[in-house]
Amino acid sequence: MLRTYQKGVTLIELIISIVVLSIAVTGVFSAIIQAARYSANPMTRQQAIIIAQSYMEEVLGRHFLDTGGAVCPATDITIYDRSAADNVCDYNNLYAAIEIPSDYRPRDIVGTLLPGLEEYEVNVTVTDDDASGAVLGTLVVLQGSAQQVVRVDVTVTTPDNFPVTLTAYRTNLP
Q1: How many CB atoms lie within 10 A of CB 89?
Q2: For the segment 33-52, what is each residue's pLDDT rounded down to a tens digit?
Q3: Scanning 12, 77, 101, 171, which has its CA 20 to 30 A from the CA of 147?
Q4: Maximum alpha-carbon separation in the chain
Q5: pTM of the model as a whole
Q6: Plot region of 100 (φ>0 → left; ψ -120 to 50 → alpha; else → beta)
């Protein structure tokens, strides 16, 4: 009996291997394209968090009461210039009074637009209720005196329309 050994591949084997390889390459390339398409999202969201933290630090760094003794939710700041804000509640609906309804872009404390952040939107609300609408009311401290509590929400919307919200509570502690 004579044995013959195969010394190559048949046309069918070649076609099957090309089809399998093309399917594998297509899957890899589609994953790479998908990853490249959404690779900027983490950067824009991180930038939105940084913007929100900056606004939140500014708001929480103010006095609780107005210099005239008025309490929340009174506001008395101009449209863009936040340097006149002397209490937390002055930041309520920060840019809501703007004549250009869509101009909620990040600005520095004197109202200058921040370069490179023109596609982000910022909104600050100061309320005396929690997320469910229940009134926070007052916080009773150990000394027995009641103190007012407000919730501060800073929402920054990214260029791809993803909202990032930071929430903090501020009290009128002595």
Answers
A1: 27
A2: 887 776 667 888 899 999 99
A3: 77
A4: 112
A5: 0.65
A6: beta
